[in-house]
Amino acid sequence: MSADNLLTLDGVHTHIAAYHILHGVDLAVPRGQVTMLLGRNGAGKTTTLRTIMGLWRASRGSVRFAGQDIGQWPTPRIAELGIAYVPENMGIFADLTVKENLLLAARGARTAQQIDGARLQWIFSLFPAVEKFWNHPAGKLSGGQKQMLAVSRAIVEPRELLIVDEPSKGLAPAIIHNMIEAFAQLKAQGVTILLVEQNLSFAERLGDRVAVMDNGRVVHAGAMRALAEDAALQHALLGLAL
What we know:
Order of helices and strands: EEEHEEHEHHHHEHEHEEHH
Radius of gyration: 18 Å
Mean pLDDT: 92
Low-confidence stretches: none
Number of helices: 10
């Protein structure tokens, strides 16, 4: 493993019941960069994220984070390494308020007053809706507001690695802009980011590196800019162009 890679998957296979979903995934996520994981629906992107987090267990291969093989670790232990995961369904606790959702994620705090104030104000600056609906039930939020809450919850404490599944899905352009700004600021703070994304414009604006999956394997890896500038390669890999 390169010392510059915070996370690496080497020959990872994942079975879910009788189904063989990942067929030897090789993936490198460089430290301090944004890596985009692209591919058609059903290519194995979400299964890859869930395997990294220990929600599915790799049946073969290795998952290494900061030099440690975490492939057989339970999910809570993986999270304690400083890895935050925002699933596609966002995982919001609908009956709890926005404040209570954030408080659950701020493990060092027992009350909202104990959440890092400067970090909270930074989150409010990125996502004003989180402050606006602070005392509202999270289930009453719009889809875009729930996505902002899900990302806010993931970053309410400092993280080394942020993994997000389709952050721009269903969002209005203005909210997508806020989301890109949030990830750019996190990257500037040294956070490593792995994003599954279908919005290729989003990927082009934010990504440093890209890996493209098909049929449970990574079939292309390289610089995001190189893929963005090569329409023929986009068509070959994704069946569409940026």
